[in-house]
Write a structure and sequence with these properties.
Elements (H helix, E strand, L loop, with lengths): L1 H6 L4 H20 L4 E3 L3 E8 L2 E4 L6 E4 L2 E8 L1 H8 L1
Antiparallel strand pairs: 1-2, 2-5, 3-4
Length: 85
Amino acid sequence: MDALAKRHHLTEKQVYDVVKLVFDGFTDTLKKDGRIEIRGFGSFTVREYGAYKGRNPRTGNDVQVKPKRLPFFKVGKELKGMVDG
């Protein structure tokens, strides 16, 4: 955040507040089953996973894992191309 503050002549607190505002907006949208798309970067959605039987890696015992909702990111074509070269 320091580099962003210097580049745009802002205080670190101002940069922090803006970044927090954006991330809070993302979080609120995903909580409401919304979709976030950032053109050229990617999109965020929420995926639902059903309950399943898992294994505790420490003890080796079987455990029942509850259903859950998790954020999922799908990379955009442009970002993928830039990273891949």
